[in-house]
Each structure stands twice: as C-alpha cells, then as structure tokens.
Amino acid sequence: MLVICVGIGSGVAPHMALIRDRVFASTNGVKVSPLSLYFGNRFEAREFLYRSELEQIATEHGDWFTLHTAFSRDVIGKKTYVQDLVAVNNDIRENLLQRKGLLYVCGNRNLPEPLRKSLVESFETDGKSRSEAILAMEEMFTHGRAQQEVW
C-alpha cells in the first residue's frame, strides 16, 4: 500500500518505525510499495531529526522512498511548512487521490487543520471542484485511509 507520512518535529519518530521496517524488508529482497515522508521543523542545522539516516535511506532506497523537507525559520521572511509542500507536490495527488494510498500524520496539534486545507488545495489541482476536493479529503479520514496522532 502506498503511504504518505507527514511529521513535524518529534512527530517524525513514529514514522521511523514504519520506514525502518520497509528498509529491512527491502534489504532482504521484499518489494515494498512507495513511501513519501514530509518532515518539517524550524531550523535545518539544529532540528533535522534523523537527518543522516533519512538521507541515507533516500539515497539507497530511492526506488520506493522519497524525502521532502521544510524548515520554517531558515530563510528570514519566508516560512515554508510541510503543509506548503503537500499542497504543491504531485505525489500527494497521485498517491492519495488517484491511487488510494494511506496518510499518516504525527506531531503538533496545530498541524491537522492547515494540512487538511493543503490536501484540498492539492486535490483541486487534479481538476476537482472545491466541494469535491473537500469530500475526497474527508472520505480519507472517514474510511480509515488517513490517521493522525497529534499532541
């Protein structure tokens, strides 16, 4: 099953178990389905959690793993958040909307609402009306294809 993981700050930690499990499977010859991780924090230099491990996985397992990062305080006057990447990346539309993948969200309790708005924006670029995009996003949550663990 295709998976999109979105984690901010320490919210990346729960995703690491899933990613490591897939690395183990892939290393042992099992074909794994695509997984994209959207990770964000404030400062890249100080707060890119699991950086070396994630970059190594992206390099060695790029056939199924994609890493997207956003650091909101690195460029003065320009804040980029994970939900900004979600709104514009093709793999969100392709993997969640067209291919019916799964979405896992972990992190700060303020993430879900902006993320939901970004999902709607992304789905609209696939030719859906605003109401169709909202319905598609809501159906992901009501049908169990989207889960969130926020605190």
CATH second-level architecture = 3-Layer(aba) Sandwich
**Nearest-angstrom radius of gyration?**
15 Å
Distance between the first and last residues' Cα: 26 Å
Main β-sheet: number of strands, strand sense, barrel status?
5 strands, parallel
CATH superfamily: Nucleotide-binding domain of ferredoxin-NADP reductase (FNR) module
Number of domains: 1
Give a brief outline of the structure.
With 151 residues, this protein is α/β, with parallel strands linked by helices.
What can you see in these coordinates?
- This protein has one domain (3-150): Nucleotide-binding domain of ferredoxin-NADP reductase (FNR) module (Rossmann fold).
- It contains seven helices and five strands, in the order βαβααβααβααβ.
- It has helices spanning 12-27, 44-47, 51-60, 82-88, 90-98, 112-124, 130-142; strands at residues 3-8, 35-41, 65-71, 102-107, 146-150.
- The longest helix is centred in the N-terminal third of the chain and has 16 residues, at 12-27.
- The mean pLDDT is 96.
Helices, strands, pairings?
Blueprint: E1 3-8, H1 12-27, E2 35-41, H2 44-47, H3 51-60, E3 65-71, H4 82-88, H5 90-98, E4 102-107, H6 112-124, H7 130-142, E5 146-150
Parallel strand pairs: 1-2, 1-4, 2-3, 4-5
